[in-house]
DNA sequence: TTGTTTCATGAATATTTTTCACCAAGATGA
DNA sequence: TCATCTTGGTGAAAAATATTCATGAAACAA
């Protein structure tokens, strides 16, 4: 019986397990294979001679031992993050400015909580949202009017680096009694006779138009727009049209049965988000920590997120 | 720049560094080579782009970054220990009895603080010291009158397992104006004309007699004894004789200049301590934790301790 | 001066982690 | 019902990582 010591790696695994509810999802989150995690968990269980969770249920159910380790993981990983922030400040000071440009409406849902946390951690950094609507956030970046831009495509560009935030599925929402409500998967052609309700932004910035309808040469029969997500949901519920929204944004309404969600295309319409920084700022501790904070708070609170490879594929 | 994550291993290193004050001592404490630690520290420093301590001074001096990591290490390792105790309780319950038999007088110096901590951690375990003096603590163990015995030799025996506690140097103490006070190292022959002051126990249990004088066939000119360490020091200071005591027990008196300490034999007289358990109790969580607690509190508070190989060589 | 101790470093080695290539068991859907 | 997917587990192979070995340089003591 070889007694290998507990490492933070194990705690990161336990936390990922709790957040994703399954071994394979946790593996994706940690950029490991499911097999690697399976081995790691077995070792961890042997180490204490205790089962950590039941695997037969979904989401997996932690045993008392698992719960205890999870509690340890939560406090420990938070402390490590705090210490690493202190070290970063020690290295390059704690003051600075971070002007964030955002191009998507729903982004504010996760941006606000993340900003609150960030302000606690970096009180000396001036954090601002670049106000107004901007068609070209990266332009703001290179022209020096913003320091960090949230974008949905990582287009290779000099002087700009992209850090992946996360990916999520855009679902079609439709009234419960809509004629096509029973269709499990919607294809581009199904939109030809529908009224599409969206945020009032250029089509190039709507993933449904850009990635699905435009390539298929389909134009919706009519268009309507609204600034507010709830307003869009209300319109859909009262059969004024259909809309494509992030799954995590509509989940609460689905649960209340106002509308139903359907997959767009056989594999689903996956949207991606990246943080863009000027290369010169790429190593700026508080900028990187902002990105890390967005990732952490989003993964912890939004359902159904998935990771994005650092490569930015 | 490869970004390897922080692991508990690194924190254990930082703590050992703080407790021992040097890289090579810390390596011994962790059962690693000095080289391994040197590599590990370099990686840790590269990871945060900060120096952790100045090496040119003894004991080494932590930088602010090093201090921050040390603070992290202290809280984290304590939390891990607490969680692991909880897991052990989850596995085999938290109640039991632990009767400790001790054969050495000075042992009480480190035993009491360790027992206080242990009682906090295992309130449901009845912890007792087997009262009175016992010439054969292991006998008490096998006859069931004690559950854990502190001994100075790990003699291979059926049904008994030995867990190493620590090793320390026994030094000769002598008055400042004693004729031989200038001698850097005392050999067995030097004791022939001296009065030896010791605790009132059989010679077989005095390391000086057992390991040095007896093998050399030397008998001190006279003997005196006392139960109390301070009393022995007083006798030595007033030139009534010489005594051999653990370095950590006399260090405070040395600093006040009452007496001086000298090495016994060219390589020093090293005493070892082991905890003996019945094999049946070897996996008992609270018994193992008692041993761990003794080790931790002793290394943290007594100067000049060294580790003892698990083998028990 | 000569030894002795301490720490650093590159190359070699050992160990550990991770992946790969399977298998089995439950779901899910046709 | 049967195929098909997804999920999780395993042993063996591969990759990554940690550790040791064999040195050397610097500080310090005798």
What's the helical proportion of residues of chain A?
40-55%
Fourth-level CATH superfamily of the largest domain in chain A: Periplasmic binding protein-like II
Quick one: which chains have the greatest interface?
A-B, 26 and 26 residues
In one word, what is the shape of chain A? globular
Quaternary class: homodimer
Order of helices and strands of chain A: HHHEEHEHEHEEEEHEHEHEEH
The largest β sheet of chain A comes out as: 8 strands, mixed
Second CATH tier, the architecture of the largest domain in chain A: 3-Layer(aba) Sandwich
Question: Structural class from helices and strands of chain A?
Answer: alpha/beta
Distance between termini of chain A? 43 Å
Rg result of chain A: 22 Å
CATH class of the largest domain in chain A: Alpha Beta
Integer average pLDDT of chain A: 90
As a percent range, the share of strand residues of chain A is: 15-25%
Number of strands of chain A: 12
Low-confidence stretches of chain A: none
Task: Summarize the structure in words.
Chain A is α/β, with parallel strands linked by helices. Chain A has three domains: 8-84, Orthogonal Bundle (Arc Repressor Mutant, subunit A), CATH 1.10.10.10; 94-165 and 272-301, Periplasmic binding protein-like II (D-Maltodextrin-Binding Protein, domain 2, 3-Layer(aba) Sandwich); 168-270, D-Maltodextrin-Binding Protein, domain 2, CATH 3.40.190.10. Chain A has ten helices and twelve strands. The first copy, chain A, has helices at residues 8-20, 23-29, 34-48, 64-92, 107-121, 137-142, 207-216, 229-237, 247-255, 285-301; strands at 53-54, 61-62, 96-102, 125-129, 148-151, 160-175, 185-186, 195-198, 222-225, 243-246, 259-264, 269-278. In chain A, the strands form three sheets. In chain A, strands 3, 4, 5, 6, 7, 10, 11 and 12 form an eight-stranded mixed β-sheet that branches. Chain A has a two-stranded antiparallel ribbon with strand order 1-2. In chain A, helix 2 crosses helix 3. The two termini of chain A are 43 Å apart. The A-B interface holds A 5-9, 12, 48-50, 64-65, 68-69, 71-72, 75-76, 79-80, 83-84, 86-88, 90-91 and B 5-9, 12, 48-50, 64-65, 68-69, 71-72, 75-76, 79-80, 83-84, 86-88, 90-91. Chain B binds a DNA duplex (30 and 30 nucleotides) through residues 4, 9, 22-24, 32-40, 42-43, 55-56, 58.
């Amino acid at each position: 019986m070889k007694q290998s010591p507990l490492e933070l790696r194990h705690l990161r695994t336990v936390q990922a397990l709790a957040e994703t509810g399954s071994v394979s999802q946790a593996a994706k989150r940690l950029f490991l294979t499911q097999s690697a995690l399976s081995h790691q968990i077995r070792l961890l269980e042997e180490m204490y001679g205790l089962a950590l969770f039941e695997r037969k249920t979904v989401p997996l159910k932690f045993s008392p031992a698992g719960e205890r380790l999870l509690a340890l993981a939560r406090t420990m990983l938070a402390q490590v993050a705090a210490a690493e922030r202190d070290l970063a400040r020690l290295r390059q000071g704690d003051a600075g400015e971070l002007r964030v440009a955002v191009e998507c409406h729903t982004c504010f849902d996760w941006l606000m909580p993340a900003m609150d946390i960030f302000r606690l951690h970096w009180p000396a950094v001036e954090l601002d949202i670049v106000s107004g609507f901007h068609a070209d956030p990266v332009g703001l970046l290179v022209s020096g009017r913003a320091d960090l831009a949230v974008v949905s495509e990582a287009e290779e560009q000099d002087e700009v680096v992209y850090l992946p935030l996360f990916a999520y599925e855009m679902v079609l929402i439709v009234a419960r009694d809509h004629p096509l409500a029973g269709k499990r998967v919607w294809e581009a052609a199904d939109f030809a006779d529908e009224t599409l309700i969206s945020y009032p932004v250029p089509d190039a910035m709507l993933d449904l138009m850009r990635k699905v309808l435009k390539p298929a040469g389909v134009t919706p029969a009519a268009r309507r727009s609204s600034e507010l997500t709830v307003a869009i949901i209300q319109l859909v519920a009262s059969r004024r049209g259909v809309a494509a929204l992030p799954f995590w944004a509509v989940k609460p309404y689905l649960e209340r049965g106002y509308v139903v969600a359907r997959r767009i295309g056989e594999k689903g319409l996956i949207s991606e988000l990246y943080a863009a920084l000027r290369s010169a700022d790429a190593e700026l501790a508080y900028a990187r920590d902002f990105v890390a904070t967005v990732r952490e708070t989003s993964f912890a609170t939004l359902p159904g997120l998935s990771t994005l490879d650092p490569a930015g594929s």
